[in-house]
Amino acid sequence: MRVGLPLGAAxxxxxxxxxxMTASAGAATALPKPSGSPVVSQPSQATLEKRIAGAEAxxxxxxxxxxxxxxxxxIVGGNETTISSAPWMAQLWxxxxxxxxxxxxxxxxxxxxxxxxxTKILTAAHCVKGYSWSKYGTVVTGTDQLxxxxxxxxxxxxxxxxxGVLRQWNHPSYSATxxxxxxxxxxxxxxxxxxxIRMTTSGDTASYTGGTSATVYGWGRTSSTSDDISQTxxxxxxxxxxxxxxxxxxxxxxxxxHMVCAGTQSGSDTGTQATCNGxxxxxxxxxxxxxxVVSWGVKDCVEKGYYSVFSKVSTYVGAAYPQIDDxxxxxxxxxxxxxxxxxxxxxxxxxxxxxxxxxxxISLGDWSGANLVLxxxxxxxxxxxxxxxxxxxxxxxxxxxxxxxxxxxxSWATTKIFSGWGxxxxxxxxxxxxxxxxxxxxxxDSGGAMWLYPGNGNGTFGSRVEVGTGWGQYNSVRGHxxxxxxxxxxxxxxxxxxxxxxxxxxxxxxxxxxxxxxxxVRSAWTGYNAxxxxxxxxxxxxxxxxxxxxxxxxxxxxxxxxxxSEIFATRISVGTGFQAYDIWG
Length: 585
Fold this sequence. Notes:
Elements: E1 9-10, H1 45-58, E2 79-80, E3 89-96, E4 107-117, E5 120-123, H2 133-136, E6 137-141, E7 148-149, E8 155-156, E9 161-163, E10 165-170, E11 184-188, E12 198-199, E13 213-218, E14 234-239, H3 243-250, E15 259-262, E16 283-286, E17 289-296, E18 308-312, H4 313-324, E19 338-342, E20 347-351, E21 362-366, E22 370-376, E23 385-390, E24 396-403, E25 410-418, E26 426-431, E27 440-444, E28 450-453, E29 465-468, E30 474-478, E31 491-495, E32 501-504, E33 519-522, E34 528-535, E35 544-549, E36 554-557, E37 572-575, E38 581-584
Parallel strand pairs: 12-17
Antiparallel strand pairs: 1-22, 2-14, 3-4, 3-6, 4-5, 5-11, 6-9, 7-8, 10-11, 13-14, 13-16, 15-18, 16-17, 17-18, 19-20, 19-38, 20-21, 22-23, 23-24, 24-25, 26-27, 27-28, 28-29, 30-31, 31-32, 32-33, 34-35, 35-36, 36-37
């Protein structure tokens, strides 16, 4: 039985007031409990291994029908390394036999990738666009060796973990002709144990200074005279070049701001330090963060005077971040969905986004014990969690789904994460505020001070840090995800006295520097009595905002990614009758 997981919301009745955040003495003490279990859709191990074997046998390049042969993506030079030095490395195997016994039409290839969250792989768009990874793909993590076939015909993963793909995303402006916007994210069926690596930030310029040393990893070709890829993970140190140098070599094929080039090519294998075929999608790392994704280069990878080309991650972190920190209750399409609770029956419901409206509600059981429900993936395992406050005690609990050892099913676990929070005016789970890819929690105490509780990625938190004071002036504080397109979580707050709406841009820092100075994005929003920011409802890669009118109509304000009064597109109605709900998200 599939169960949707409820999405973040503060209790809301006729108006959004601080009183709604206080404990209710008459509330039921029974803890809400998710009914049923989320679907764990993982192909069998045999199926995953068959895909690997097919891809190994086919040995064709990942062209997506696109990359010109003179610019085949593809480490020449460098040294072998171990998975402990790059635990985030992922092997991407794809095989489609087209349903025939004729092997001439088979499609099989190999790419690299990086684990950026337990269910998220950052890779290149040319490895993803035009292929059905959920049907034909396998991702292997946790090993520095490529799979081998043993004497009995079985596949030896050398301690690695094979996982299926749930869904895929590539940059919507990816061009197969120019290999521009060459970045993608795969969402895995189940979380992997590999240690993730972070992407660089949108404001990073230092990492791209000409002469900077960067590290590349991959299993690609090691010689210009052989098509064989490396059985063992390799690494090399490449020197980054200025955009003018790259453009001087490639002309208009190099798109400054979208691409970066690095390495040295001597004209032969000796003296060359470059990526090559099979390295596509792998990471270029500076200072422990991904600054580039292997994209393209010249044929055979050694031609003198040319360089390896990478997608510039600082440009694309804003587009990729919503895919990594999604709020998809249905777990199928990447769109943020909605939780509501009936004020009459206290039943919770899931309403799945279609992109411009919400579908029929799905019952999630009795939520009478709660006066606050939030959705957050605190352990980033890909399954949405419940974070809720019990009205009678003010205690805050975290319900999360725990997979069994076979990764085929699991059960719900309940953990108390905060005690006695009945007088907290606001509680927000905005995602990652501190830049470590671990979701955090914010709360506003009775005196109006906001506190940041930095998440440890496992439902526990570091010592709280005061963000600032004066937050009692707002009767709504909302946020989930990146509203401004810079890859950092933001907040929206409405002032009680004027109804003005302010944007607080996240900086990726902690403490008093967690947010930039507020920006007024709307004036006198007095016609609304409830708000929510649940993430990317429309599915366009930008976080959106929801507002409920006094007549119960719910409006979607699609995000534009702009940190100005143009932060939203013109509102559209996404449903009526929302006055029936006292907790919603």
